[in-house]
Write a structure and sequence with these properties.
With 467 residues, the chain is α/β, with parallel strands linked by helices. 30% of the residues lie in helices and 23% in strands. The chain has 12 helices and 23 strands. A hairpin with a 5-residue loop joins strand 16 and strand 17. The model has no long low-confidence stretch (mean pLDDT 96). It binds flavin-adenine dinucleotide. Flavin-adenine dinucleotide binds next to helix 1, strand 19 and helix 8.
Length: 467
């Protein structure tokens, strides 16, 4: 098992290097780990997996009911959703099949719902049903006045995005993939047989290259001579409401979509909170993950119409993620066989859902580019710590606590995170490098006090493990 965070990167050439340890890059690495004869590296700029767009989204496992029929995205979302639901079950990634309601607030939107049901059918999703006003009110009694009807999409689920990326990466590393963190690729070049990836930690060499660099995929693509797309970061700001708000909403409440995207939604999270967002703002800056007063005010205004009671609830946090939007409507996945190179660009709003199907697709393209995959093996399953409210947490399990009292000693009281869970995360295959990384593995400091009560203890435990 190799995870490196410092020192020089290895000199011996890899069969495949994957740039980017987001949910997509980690899924690709995991798929390649099925082939034991391959030497695979993941090269990541930051100090943890899933630190880019993959950590800041709306965490919905989509059915793909509203994708553009016939597009690559539609196929990979449809297949990926099924694959990820099964994988989550096997790996302990929390998923709740709460279903979605596309709510119509005026006659025009109401008239659009049958077309959306038809589109769902074209995407192979046949369970969507039109609901009248009364049915909608019964299902969501706290909706604001003026909701006329809805399209019910029972297959939409909520999922933990942090555990998903970590599960893929953990499984990949346990099966021999090298994960090089803190290794921003500054320059790419191709010799007669090898790619050369110049990083801050030396130059890494690989026969085949996969560019899964998310927001930066276009920059790396240009270094290899391609000019197929430009990433325009599309910021999505969100507000997280405290767990007391959870009783107000049972489904994912979606608006009728517009050309700019899926619009502002209200959705429960697997951690027991409620999300309001995201915005859709096209920006120039690929680091602009801040929140703005104007956008938060806009979200509150939209939220007031959807679920008026939500605005009386406490806000736990705000955050923003950047979608890797491009000038094209579909993913920009391109194989360049003459360069033994694959671009995985433009994975905008659905990459979490589609990740496992994207990984299978890329494996096929690598083989098409001439990579000898060699024999295939089944991967040893991983079992991830449960971060979901709908499943038993360690502090709720008397037998577990009797066997190991650390699971009964709460450190973060808001999120009910025990010392045992923090200890396990710090000793895991890919341990966190910051207290924020620890939060994404345990929920410690993610609750209503945002670490005011437990922050010092969490930091002491974290620093103790680094010593
Ligand atoms: C607001 C919002 C809501 C969303 N909601 C959903 C949803 O509900 N469901 C869903 O399925 N999807 C959703 N998405 C989309 C989903 O989050 C993305 O499609 C997915 O996270 C993309 O993953 P990625 O691995 O391609 O990119 P990233 O997670 O950004 O990973 C790319 C990685 O590459 C690294 N990198 C970049 N340049 C270099 C370099 N030069 N050298 C080394 N490393 C580099 C970065 O550090 C980063 O870690 C949403 C996105 C946003 C922003």
């Amino acid at each position: 098992m190799t995870v490196t965070v410092g020192g020089l990167v290895p000199q011996a050439a890899y069969d495949v290097a994957v740039i980017g340890a987001g949910v997509v890059g980690c899924a690709i690495a995991r798929a390649l780990a099925r082939h034991p004869s391959l030497r695979v590296a993941v090269v990541e700029a930051q100090d943890d997996v899933g630190q880019g767009t993959s950590k800041a989204n709306t965490a919905i496992l989509h059915t793909g009911f509203d994708a553009v029929p016939g597009s690559l995205e539609a196929r990979l979302v449809r297949e990926g959703a099924r694959q990820l639901a099964a994988y989550a079950d096997e790996s302990g990634i929390p998923v709740e099949p709460v279903g979605a309601l596309l709510v119509a607030w005026d006659e025009e939107q109401l008239a659009a719902l049958p077309r959306l049901a038809e589109k769902a059918g074209h995407n192979g999703y046949r369970d969507a049903r039109l609901w009248g006003h009364a049915e909608l009110r019964d299902a969501e009694p706290h909706l604001g006045p003026g909701a006329l009807g809805a399209l019910h999409v029972p297959g939409e689920s909520i999922i933990c995005p942090w555990t998903t990326t970590l599960a893929y990466a953990t499984q990949a590393v346990r099966h021999g993939v090298d994960l090089h963190l803190n290794s921003p690729v500054e320059q790419l070049s191709r010799g007669p047989r090898l790619h050369h990836l110049r990083t801050a930690r030396g130059t890494l060499h690989a026969r085949h290259l996969v560019n899964a660099a998310g927001l930066h995929a276009d920059i790396l693509d240009r270094q290899l001579g391609h000019d197929d797309f430009t990433v325009t970061p599309r910021r999505g700001q969100l507000i997280v409401f405290d767990t007391f708000a959870r009783a107000l909403v049972r489904h994912i409440l979606l608006p009728v979509p517009t050309a700019l995207g899926k619009g502002v939604l209200v959705a429960p999270t697997v951690y027991g909170n409620v999300l309001l967002g995201p915005t859709a703002e096209d920006l120039d800056d690929k680091r602009a993950t801040g929140s703005t007063a104007d956008a938060l005010a806009l979200l509150r205004e939209k939220g007031r119409r959807i679920l008026p009671g939500l605005l009386d609830e406490e806000v736990t946090a705000v955050y923003a993620g950047l979608r890797a939007a491009t000038e094209h409507d579909d993913y920009r996945i391109t194989a360049h066989p003459d360069q033994s190179y694959i671009t995985v660009g433009g994975i905008r709003s659905t990459g979490l859902t589609a990740s496992l199907a994207i990984a299978d697709h890329i494996t096929g393209l690598l083989a098409g580019n001439g990579l000898e995959l060699g024999p295939t093996r089944d991967l040893e399953p991983v079992r991830m710590p449960n971060l979901g409210e709908a499943f038993p947490r360690p502090h709720q399990q008397p037998r577990l606590i009797a066997a190991d009292p650390e699971y009964g000693t709460l450190v973060c009281h808001c999120e009910r995170v025990s010392r045992g869970e923090i200890r396990d995360a710090l000793a895991s295959t890919i341990p966190p490098r910051t207290v924020d990384g620890l939060r994404r593995r345990t929920r410690a400091r993610a609750g209503r006090c945002q670490g005011f009560y437990c922050g010092a203890t969490v930091r002491a435990l974290f620093e103790g493990a680094q010593a």
